Amino acid sequence: MDLGRAFTPEHLDTPTPPEEEIRRILAVTGKVLLEDELNCGACGYPSCREKAIAVLQGFAEAEMCLPYMVEKLESVQEELTRANSELKDSLTTLQKTQQQLVQSEKLASVGQLAAGVAHELNNPLGGILIYSGLLLEQADKESRQAQDLQRIMAETDRCRRIVRGLLDFSRQTRIDAAIVNLNKILSSTLALVTEQALFLNIQVVQQLQESLPNVFVDVGQIQQVFLNIILNAADAMNGRGTLSVRSETSPEGDQVLVSFSDTGSGMTPEIISRIFEPFFTTKPRGRGTGLGLAIAYGIVQRHHGDILVASQPGMGSTITVTLPTAA
Fold first, then answer.
1. Hey, where are the domains in the chain?
2. Cα angle at 224 between 221 and 230, to 5 degrees?
3. What angle do CA 153, 158, 159 make, to 5 degrees?
4. What is the pLDDT at residue 311?
5. Of 29, 92, 109, 156, which has the highest C-beta tally within 10 A?
6. H or E stretch including 317?
7. pLDDT in tens, 252-285
8. pTM higher than 0.70
9. Which has the minimum average pLDDT: 21-25, 96-100, 299-303, 313-317?
10. Closest C-alpha to 205, from 150, 164, 247
11. Quick one: CATH architecture of 178-324?
12. Closest CA to 300 of 270, 268, 267, 258
């Protein structure tokens, strides 16, 4: 029995795809120009062109190119790194905004309470001053009664100053703004305080930018802010050290920055987080009301600015006031 079988050879000729189709497949893996074809053989074909033909004939996949996959992976990694960085920046900005919002709400609620208390106290304090003054006019100037009345008037006047501070803190004062140069406000404020006994052993170093842009602010209120920061710095140095005052324009050119750096004892992060809280103070009892920086913070916020604090225990402190430039 003959189990053999005859076969007739048949030549199968696969036609070469059109050139535009080959270029289209090559472009899928970024091979647009002739020099883009590396012909590395990593895909199993001698050349990128032969691999593209195999794709069109159904024997390979267009994306199976090792250099292309590595380049695409690196591109995706760079994109992820950039997105991660942007996300971190956004989170930092969100946290800062949230802290400012919480602080603003806290100041607003306490400010409303302070305003109510201040208005209620103003009238009786005024009455005490008037009638104490009348009694003092009738009393013997050398008598114990006159001394007691003078003490009553002095303490009542101190109470009125505290009430005035409460009203300032509650933002019940109107802004009378004008276009000014902050260097002039700084110079006049420093001239006002450096003659005091507290500054006899404090060296004041001024680094004021000459071409400082103007700002649109209430001169009296901003001077109050600077005065409060300067006096706090002197207290932090116990009347002995160096106070550096610097004015400059922000890199973007839309803000003026005024920084006050002292060589005092510095602050812990816990204290920094609370220094703008109303009635919070690190001074001994009777030496401070805890309203100074809270009032300063409120004033600067009303001027669309900010107060930044940088400090470490034993390394001194730097407080920077930022204000927008005049349009």
1. 19-64, 98-169, 178-324
2. 150
3. 95
4. 93
5. 29
6. strand 317-324
7. 999 999 999 999 989 999 999 888 887 777 776 6
8. no
9. 96-100
10. 247
11. 2-Layer Sandwich (3.30)
12. 258
